[in-house]
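Quick entry between incubations.
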Amino acid sequence: MTYRLAITLGDPMGIGPEVVLKALADRQLTDEIEMTVVGSLSILRDTYARLAGGSEPVANPEELSVLDCPLPEEIERQLVLGTGNRASGWASFAYLQAAIAHTQEGKFQGIVTGPIAKSAWKAAGYDYPGQTELLAEASGTEQFGMLFVGRSPHTQWQLITLLATTHISLRKVPKILTTTLLDQKLQLLINVLQTRFGLDRPRIAIAGLNPHSGEEGQLGTEEIDWLIPWIERSRKIYPNLTLDGPIPPDTMWVKPAQAWYDSSFADSACDAYIALYHDQGLIPVKMLAFDRAVNTSIGLPFVRTSPDHGTAFDIAGRGIAQSTSMKAAIQLATELVYQRNVIGRSFSQDFLI
Ligand SMILES: NC(=O)C1=CN([C@@H]2O[C@H](COP(=O)(O)OP(=O)(O)OC[C@H]3O[C@@H](n4cnc5c(N)ncnc54)[C@H](O)[C@@H]3O)[C@@H](O)[C@H]2O)C=CC1
Ligand SMILES: NCC(=O)COP(=O)(O)O
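Done. Structure below.
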């Protein structure tokens, strides 16, 4: 069987089209699996015309498989390169919807999404916190997670980070974090570590919520009230698992940072890290691996990955966007599609960036 990935352009006025064309110029990447770009051919042609002949190779859209999503004239007129607005939000939403519909028909086994601006979606009337939630809703998935995977170019050690909560205001974090939510996220994480990453007895670290994990209640009581009891209960439920924590959130990232640069620290680092809220997890991930981390949605009935960066409107059209995170997203999606669909196939370490 031939496996196929859909690659959406994301916001057409951001760097999505540029990083897609740069990534697809990499032959090694495109040899592994068939890929179809989902977006507007007119945008791809404009991007190619701007970038071709520059310092970095770019794929020619005429030589790619493209699922064209032509834009209505009224939308096209409102597009402004480097700006996310109602029209660009309309377009990026349409691209993702098309990719989902074709995936559900069985045309694709996975989707790699270009970055979108949530504010542009909102301006276009689409009220979703992000692409993850649309993918979950469209596929009828109630329990899903946002996982970031980055492989160190220095040591090959992998930083795997699950966000227990995602796109919500900081004020809401303590209200939304419950032991039921953590049960669901932990179960999803264990499942993906075992089935997709081959980690049968994973060691997982979980961050505290408060500074110094509450300092025995002096700086906050969530740890004493429910987080420590939840960790103790989870250790009994999953005896094959090592669950460390709650670890003071500032120091939790010291060992991963050491393992990122020096393989002699790999054994003291954990297989995966659970951050309780968006920035607690993504500041260290982006500090270490902004150029190569991949956001993957777990729990969906198909594979979904995305680069970790956003639309970068500030550099759109300048030809200087790095495509390494998009390449890593395509590579990880390829690996996950094969792992889901081809029993027993595994990839060598050097397959991944
Ligand atoms: N997967 C997705 O769809 C994501 C979307 N976003 C959205 O992106 C928009 C902009 O978010 P920001 O916080 O500004 O983050 P951003 O990642 O777009 O940009 C942050 C900084 O990094 C630079 N940068 C980003 N990607 C780069 C690349 N590939 N090569 C070179 N430089 C790069 C930008 O120029 C900017 O200076 C927001 O609307 C946000 O919601 C943010 C993260 C992920
Ligand atoms: N910070 C991660 C992010 O914004 C990705 O969101 P999503 O569009 O993948 O849901």
